[in-house]
Amino acid sequence: MTKHVFVTGGVASSLGKGISASSLGRLLKARGLRVTMQKLDPYINVDPGTMNPFEHGEVFVTDDGGETDLDLGHYERFIDENLSRASNATTGSIYSSVLAQERRGDYLGRTVQVIPHITDEIKRRIRALVAEDVDVVITEIGGTVGDIEILPFLEAIRQFRLDVGRDNVCYIHVTLVPFIGPSGEQKTKPTQHSVTELRSRGIQPDVIVCRSESPIGEGLKRKISSLCDVQPSGVVNAADAGNLYEVPLILHDEGFDAEVCQVLRLDAGEPDLTEWQALVDKIERAERSVRIGIIGKYVSLPDAYLSVVEATRHGGFHHGARVEIDWIQAEEVEGLLASSRLADLDGMVIPGGFGERGTEGKVAAARFSRENGIPCLGLCLGLQMMVVDYARNVLGLAGANSRELDPATPYPVIDLMDDQRDVTDKGGTMRLGAYVAELQPGSKVAEIYGRTVVSERHRHRYEFNPRLRHHFEGTTLRLSGESPDHRLVEFVELDDHPFWVATQAHPELKSRPNRAAPLFRELVGAALDRAEGRNPHLFDADAVDAAAVAAAAATPASA
Ligand code: GLN
Asked: Tell me: the pLDDT tens digits for 231-278?
C-alpha cells in the first residue's frame, strides 16, 4: 500500500518548503523506502514553460520533456531519482483536462463544479504516482495556506485521507517562527494562525516544521504543540543551515522522519545516512576555493539559474572546493573587458537563455575566455554564442550570428533546422527532454564522461547550422558530439585551450550533489588548475584592451 505525505506551507512563501519535502524524501529513502515526489502548483499557467524566469525562476526539464517547477530539481537532487512530467500539475493543467472532458461530453449533461470535478482530477493526479514499486509519495502543495487558489488543493488532500485511510496519510505544515528584534523573542503566533487556517479547511497537521533563523527552544516547541494540537514529537525545527544539503541531517536529528514513519505506521529501519553525512562533511571541510562567473541575463534572480548554480557547487564538492559565484550581467560584459573582473575569474559558465538581450555580452565573454585561457562551459545558448564568437573572431565570418538573434545575418551559424522552419510562426517547436548524443572517441568530452554515448536533457529550438559546417571542419573547434543520426551538433570543444567546452544540452539538470555532472566537475577541475597556478594564463591588460577594441569594431549591432 503506497503511503502519502502532503506538505503545505504557511505564514510566508519561500520558506524552503521544497527543501523540507526533499529532505524528507532523502531520509525516507535512507530508511530503505522507495520514494517519489510531486508538486501541485495552484497558479493558472498550464506549465511554467511560458513563464518569465524573472517571475518564476528556472524551468526544470524532466527526461520525458516536461517543463516543470524548479522544486522538481531539488527533489531529483535530494532523492536521486529521475522524475517525469507527471510529478508536476498546475491549476491550469487540471482545468484543461476537466474542460476537455466536459467538451467531449463525458459529464453527460451534469453541472461541472470545483467540488467534485476539479478535486477529483487533483486526486487523480496524486494517485497517478502510486505504483507497485513506490512506498511513499510526497506531494508538495505550492503557495501558502490562505491563498484563494489553493482551496481546491486543500479540499482534495483533505478528502484523500478519507479515501485511502487514516494511517496512509501524513500532513506536514511548514511555517515560520520569526524573531522579533525589539522584544528579542521568537514568535509562535504566525504558526498558530496558519494552523488555524489549515484546520478551517479540515486539515489537522500531523507534523509542523518550524523554519527559524536560530534554533527554537523546547519551551516554544511545547507551546506550538499544545496550541496547534500536534504531538510534541511532531514539532520539528528547521533552523537556517549553512548549506542546503545539511537540512536532511538537521531534520533527522529533530526526529522528523521518525515522526512521519510513526504517523504512517511505517515500520522502516533506521536511516543509513553515512553517504549523506560524508557529503556534508566534505562540503564543510572544503579548503580550496574557486571563483566562477555566471554570465547571465537574469542575474538579479539567481533562482533563474538554480540548477546551474547547484551543478557548479556539485563540481566543487567533488574537488573539495568552495565555489564562489560571481554573477555577471551579460549586457555589462563589454564594459568589463578592460577591468580585472573577468580576468580574475577561475572559470565561467555561459548559461542558456532566450532572446537577444545580453547575447553580445555572452559572445564577448566567450571570446575573452577563449583568448585568455579561462575555463569556460557553454550551455545551450552558451554553446551557440561560443560558436558565434569562433565564427566571427577566428574564422573571420563577419556578422555571424544565430538567426534567432539576427534574422539577416550573412552567416547563420546557428539556425532552425529545415523541418522546424515550417512552424516558424511560433519560432519552431522546442526540442525538449532527454536526447542521446554520440561523442567522438578521443575527444575531451568523451574522456570527461568516460564513455561515448550520453543522454542529456534539452530545451531549445535553434541548432548548429549543418549548412555552414564546412567552415568549422578541420579547425581547432572540434564538433565533438553529435546526435546518432549526425544531423545535430551536441558538443563542441576547443583543442588548444585548457577547457572551452560547450553543449547544446542542459547537463546541469542531471547533476547530483554526490555525482556532479561530468562537464561541471571538469569545469571546476580546470578552474582549480587556474586558481592554484597549475595552468597559469596571466592577465595582460594591454592585450585585453586591444582585444576589447577589436571586438567592439568587429561586432555588428544586431536588432
Ligand atoms: N534560445 C536558444 C534556442 O532556442 C537557446 C535556448 C536555451 O538556451 N535553452 O535554441
From this structure: 999 999 999 998 999 999 999 999 999 999 999 999 988 999 999 999
380 has catalytic annotation: yes
Mean per-residue pLDDT of the chain: 93
Candidates 334, 490, 508, 522; catalytic one: 508
117 is catalytic: no
Using CA atoms in the order 59, 75, 252, 512, what is the torsion angle rounded to 10 degrees? -90
DSSP 3-state of 78? helix
CA distance 434 to 432: 7
**What local confidence, expressed as pLDDT, does residue 420 receive?**
73
The secondary structure of residue 316, as a DSSP letter, is: H
Please work out, in degrees rounded to the nearest 5, the angle formed at the alpha carbon of residue 299 by the alpha carbons of 243 and 559. Answer: 160
Report the alpha-carbon distance of residue 508 to residue 516 in Å, rounded: 9
- Given a cut of 90, whether residue 51 has pLDDT beyond it is no
Query: Grid coordinates representing 36?
Result: 517519489
CB 427 within 8 A of CB 404: yes
Whose cell is 566543487? That residue is 316
pLDDT of residue 434 exceeding 90, the answer is: yes
What is the DSSP-derived secondary structure letter of residue 426?
G
Residue 76 burial (CB count, 10 A):
24
Quick one: what percent of the chain has pLDDT higher than 90? 85
Find cell 551559424 and name the residue: 413
Q: What is the DSSP string of 20-52?
A: HHHHHHHHHHHTT--EEEEEEE-SSSSSGGGS-
Other C-beta atoms closer than 10 Å to the C-beta of 162 total 10
3-state DSSP assignment of residue 177: coil
Number of Cβ within 10 Å of residue 157's Cβ equals 25
Surface-to-core class of residue 473, CB atoms within 10 Å of its CB (0-12 exposed, 13-18 middle, 19+ buried): exposed
State the distance from the centre of ligand 1 to the C-alpha of 530, rounded, in angstroms: 30
Ligand 1 contact, 117 CB (< 6 A): no
Ligand 1 atom closest to the CA of 427, numbered from 1: 4
Query: Which of 404, 416, 417, 489 for a ligand 1 pocket mutation test, highest count of atoms within 8 Å of Cβ?
Result: 404
C-alpha cell at 93: 493543467
168: its cell numbers? 496512509
Give percent helix, percent strand, percent coil of the chain, each to the nearest 5: 45, 20, 35
Helix (H, G, I), strand (E, B) or coil at 180: strand
DSSP secondary structure, 481-542, as one string: EE-TTS-SEEEEEETTSSSEEEESS-GGGG-BTTB--HHHHHHHHHHHHHHTTSS-----HH
Q: Give yes or no for residue 536 having a pLDDT over 90.
A: no
Q: At 245, phi and psi to the nearest 5? A: -75, -5
Residue 554 in grid coordinates: 568587429
CA distances from 152 to 4, 217, 510 (A): 18, 35, 33
Query: Candidates 381, 387, 404, 456: which one to mutate for ligand 1, based on the most atoms within 8 Å of Cβ?
Result: 381
Q: Which of 67-71, 295-299, 378-382 is least confident?
A: 295-299
Q: Is 438 helix (H, G, I), strand (E, B) or coil?
A: strand
